[in-house]
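Appendix C reproduces, verbatim, an entry submitted by the partner laboratory led by Prof. M.T., so that reviewers can inspect both the input and the predicted structure.
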Amino acid sequence: MDIKDRDAAVIAGRNPALEALRSDSEINSLFIATGLGGSVSLIVALAREKGVPVKTVSPAKLESICGNANHQGVVLTLASVAYAEMEDIYALAEKKGEDLFVVLADGIEDPHNLGAVIRTAEACGAHGVVIPKRRSASMTAAAFKASAGAASFLPVVRVANLVAAMKELKAKGVWLYCADAGAKLWCGQDYAGGVGLVIGSEGGGVSRLVRETCDFAVGLPMFGRISSLNASVAAGVILYEIARQRHKTIDS
């Protein structure tokens, strides 16, 4: 399998895996069959050096991932689309003549949730979505499908350090808002100027360092017994309020 083919979802086998890890391929995860031990130590070391999650699974699980391929106990999964750069986000905003509007996902691990966030972000006129390399869902085929094709039009940037990316956005005049239960109501906030909305995971919300880097926190009231919303649902509510204020196309 050609490791340069971005439509390829899986790389199976030890040598192909090594080649991929030594290249610039966007790798989601490394799956290792149980019981291999030190025979794949180099592959595991390279994966960890690049920040690729390493998962030990049964041989049956590997076969379910790669089908009849000769995996030799090693399978890599690749991103289904090529990631963009921060400069691509800036270029899109400049092309449209608009203040920056960016969505940042902090700890969203479900690819369907990530895809749904990307879909809504594109519908609301955002210029890009930023995701971290670690402890986060990536642009798998499932995420791409859930985005309903929005990932083909909206830059999705994968960064090694989300806080560093946030500081870069702040240096460009972007105000950062995080969704945080119990904070000021989302609809009472003024989203003028450049906007960066940070959405955290359902379980843990926004991480501490990310929260401290934000300028404001906005929340959604909960009137039932459930204490949190699906991340993509919360993102949708807040994103449409930002869109309403930016474009004045929805009656107050």
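Residues 1-8 have pLDDT under 50 and may be disordered. Additional entries are available on request from the coordinating office.
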